[in-house]
Amino acid sequence: MPRVKSFSRSLESFFRRIWEFIYSFRKIFIIWSILTIFIIVGFALGLDKKAIAFFAIIFALISQAFLGLINLIALIPLVGPLIAKVLALPIYWILNALGYFISLIAIKKGFSKEVVNYRVLTIVFLVGVATGFVIGKLI
Prior knowledge:
Blueprint: H1 2-24, H2 26-45, H3 49-63, H4 65-74, H5 80-88, H6 90-108, H7 112-138
């Protein structure tokens, strides 16, 4: 019988820790839930995809949903803080924004097929920068 009580206590402790984690990050979970519901309802109602994306991004920026997501990523042991550092680097944001502006100019000039290849290369480059930063810090 003592084994059952021990297992019961450890299970109760486990669920208590999960509840404390969810409670401490409740605002982030609520914001992302609202954002997800908004996007799903927008698609279900047949709203314009660009309008849904615009309002979702504005809501996420105002509510600091992206910052909360980076905080959750930073909780991952060992690599989480490194990934959070990379995502917070200003040069990372500038390179990504520059890629979008160049994409807009190229699309206006009629190079839409080439833009897809360019954006894929940009994403691969940014993922490579993030991966290289994490591996470099670990070594």
